[in-house]
Amino acid sequence: MGKFFHSVTLDESKCVGCTNCIKRCPTEAIRVRNGKAVITSERCIDCGECIRVCPHHAKRARHDHLAMLDQFTYKIALPAPSLYGQFNNLDDQDYVLTGLKKLGFDDVVEVSSAAELVSEATRRLMDAGKLKRPVISSACPAIVRLIRVRFPDLCDHVLPLLSPMETAATIAKEEAMKKTGLPEEEIGCFFITPCPAKVTDIRMPIGIEKSKVDGAIAISEIFPVLSNKMDKLHPDELEPLSNSGIIGVSWASSGGESSALLKEKYLAADGVENVIRVLEEIEDERIGELDFIELNACTGGCVGGVLCVENPYVAIARLQRLRRYLPVSQNHLESREEVPQEMHWEGELEFSNVLTLSEDLGRAMEMMMEIDEVEASLPGLDCGACGAPTCRAFAEDVVRGNSKKADCIFVLRKQIQQFADSISHLDGGILPKDHN
Predict the structure, then answer these.
(1) What architecture does CATH give domain 8-61?
(2) What's the topology of domain 361-430?
(3) Cα distance between residue 260 and residue 85, in whole Å
(4) Are 372 and 365 in contact (CB under 8 A)?
(5) Measuring CA to CA, which residue among 306, 336, 278 is closest to residue 221?
(6) Three-class secondary structure of residue 59 per DSSP
(7) Which uninterrupted H or E stretch holds 14?
(8) Which pLDDT tens digit goes with each residue over 326-343?
(9) How far apart, in whole angstroms, are the C-alpha atoms of residue 236 and residue 436?
(10) Dihedral, 92, 96, 98, 104 alpha carbons, nearest 10
(11) Consecutive H or E run containing 75
């Protein structure tokens, strides 16, 4: 594996060079070159926005497949809470969980149950005054990567706790080793994922050196076969596997994590464009008096992930129905005040300077002035015809040497007009005055 792993990939054969993706990428990681989109690996945060907006399905997400289960002796499914929102008239999570065992998993550990532990751990750390306010959730890996590359001053606001996915995998493997006596390497944990960012987070995790999750299977892949198994289930076959309540299941949609903290001063935003506006206001200190900020790259929260199959708002409505039958919470940390060390990140979130113009401050300042100069000569329409999302981004590409100024059609048209005028002037100077 190289320096960067990305779940989001480009199928050049389907790309027609339209500008839908470059306009929506939150880190300006995409350009159109020679009629095809190009993804700058170090800038990509795998939010999946380009997958969502591409009308030609040229962007897609890599993920693991059910066949990967054969590589392990003991297989554990880690279903995301958003999985429950994909099924109509679901009133018992055990239908989903038993169905997963029918697919070949030996055990199932709900990520929603781990989410309840993360919520309690967050409450304890906040009550102890150990976190810098406002605390920014670290549950969405796309948001954590966005902060890392675009908002360096906010890195120390990010909650330094493992995600519910990692917490669930840690618990699952410990219990499986005790139960089976197998070594950890023979036990496989598979996250049933709603989004590509989680796939990347497993391969290249932030906050820890190595993920406990062995694979990520897309909800869209598992949904048809799982639905088939669930349809054939008789109520007598259901196993009592569910161990989560309203708090855990609510993590599937925007606002669920925040409300679980039982605090009033919180903000929840979803959709990457809305998230960026919130982060900019936090960075400019225009948002005050808040304890917690929950941010989700996908519209509606995890139920809006591009690897889900259901409309996110329909999924949210289904989850609201499911929650009526659940207790508030079924998982709690031990009574001690300290949050278990294994739930913490192993290191701090560090700024990734992939957007920096130059390591040399003097040269960076020079390039900034050059970019300002080039931008001033551009039309300011942000049309995207040059292959860059904005005139500012195009000016940066020109200064970096990745584009020519004439790649702007308006600059090119002006140059052609000037050339035509000069030819016309030359023509008028050498031909007889009575020439028409």
Answers:
(1) 2-Layer Sandwich (3.30)
(2) 3-methyladenine DNA Glycosylase II; Chain A, domain 3 (1.10.15)
(3) 19
(4) no
(5) 306
(6) strand
(7) none
(8) 999 999 998 777 899 999
(9) 96
(10) 180
(11) strand 74-79
Same fold, 8-61 and 361-430: no
CA distances from 56 to 144, 309, 311, 351, 383 (A): 29, 18, 20, 34, 20
Q: Is 63 exposed, middle or buried (0-12, 13-18, 19+ CB in 10 A)?
A: buried
What is the pLDDT at residue 352?
A: 86
Q: Contact, 60 vs 195, CB < 8 A?
A: no
pLDDT single digits (tens) 198-215: 999 999 999 999 999 999
The residue type of 286 is: R
**Distance from C-alpha of 154 to C-alpha of 104, rounded to nearest angstrom:** 43
Q: How far apart are CA 144 and CA 159, in angstroms?
A: 10
First-residue to last-residue Cα distance in the chain: 69
408/174 Cα distance (integer angstroms): 58
Listed by start position, the domains of the chain span 8-61, 66-343, 361-430
CA pair distance 27, 42, nearest whole angstrom: 10
Residue 310 makes CB contacts below 8 A (sequence gap 6+) with 85, 86, 303, 318
**Selected residue with higher pLDDT from 109 and 418:** 109
Cβ–Cβ under 8 Å, residues 193 and 41: no
User: The whole model's pTM is what?
Assistant: 0.91
